[in-house]
């Protein structure tokens, strides 16, 4: 199978970046995050792109970044929380080893503080997070090879659970 060894999906703040780096270290491969790719390519934050250009422009940029990373990267790849909204991206994820890192709203509050730096959670963040998850949960599950609950677990525990669920051996 060409492409990433593992693709991480899940909501904002679930720990994709932290767990992704830990997985990469444990497996002896490189780590890449499409959100980082977008920021580097665009020269501005994702929040700035949302404010300046709107969500639809951001999603088009994100789709291109994800498709490029899936073709180029062979290590651990983390996708932005909304990347799975695109049907083409979901189709491309078929055949890849995809880990969906899940958490409930209380865990999201603890981890992110549901802060204003998250453009989709600017007003009534708890309610908006629940609505986002209602719209996205089935899409995360659709692309997932394995679902790893992160609630109440340390990043190391989540990494261990992901290695087990995906049946991967450390380098």
| Number of beta-strand segments | 5
Unreliable runs: none
Helix content: 40-55%
For the sheet with most strands, the description reads: 5 strands, parallel
**So what's the overall shape?**
globular
Spatial order of strands in the largest sheet: 2-3-1-4-5
Q: Separation of termini?
A: 18 Å
Number of helix segments?
8
Mean pLDDT: 88
Order of secondary-structure elements? EHEHHHEHEHHEH
- Quickly give the structural class: alpha/beta
Instruction: Calculate Rg over CA atoms.
Output: 15 Å
* Strand composition percent: 5-15%
Structure, described:
A five-stranded parallel sheet has the order 2-3-1-4-5, with helices on both faces. The chain is α/β, with parallel strands linked by helices and 171 residues long. The longest helix is centred in the C-terminal third of the chain and has 19 residues, at 125-143. It has eight helices and five strands. 54% of the residues lie in helices and 11% in strands. α1 packs across α8 (155-165), α2 packs across α4 and α4 runs parallel beside α5.
Please describe the topology of this protein.
Blueprint: E1 6-9, H1 16-27, E2 31-33, H2 34-42, H3 46-53, H4 55-72, E3 76-78, H5 87-93, E4 98-102, H6 105-112, H7 125-143, E5 146-149, H8 155-165
List keywords for this structure.
single chain, 171 residues, alpha/beta, five-stranded parallel beta sheet, 11% strand, globular
Can you describe this structure in just a few lines?
It contains eight helices and five strands.
């Amino acid at each position: 199978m060409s492409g990433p060894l593992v693709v991480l999906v899940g909501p904002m703040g679930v720990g994709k970046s932290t767990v992704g780096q830990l997985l990469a270290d444990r497996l002896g491969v490189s780590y890449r995050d499409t959100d980082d790719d977008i920021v580097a390519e665009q020269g501005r934050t994702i929040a700035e792109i949302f404010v300046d250009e709107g969500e639809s422009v951001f999603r088009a940029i994100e789709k291109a970044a994800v498709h490029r990373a899936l073709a180029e990267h062979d290590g651990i790849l983390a996708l932005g929380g909304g990347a799975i909204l695109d049907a083409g991206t979901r189709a491309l994820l078929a055949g890849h080893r995809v880990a969906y890192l899940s958490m409930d709203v209380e865990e999201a509050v603890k981890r992110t503080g549901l802060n204003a730096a998250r453009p989709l959670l600017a007003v009534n963040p708890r309610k908006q997070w629940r609505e986002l998850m209602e719209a996205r949960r089935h899409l995360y599950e659709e692309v997932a090879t394995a679902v790893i609950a992160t609630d109440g677990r340390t990043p190391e525990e989540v990494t261990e659970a992901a290695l087990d669920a995906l049946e991967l051996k450390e380098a």
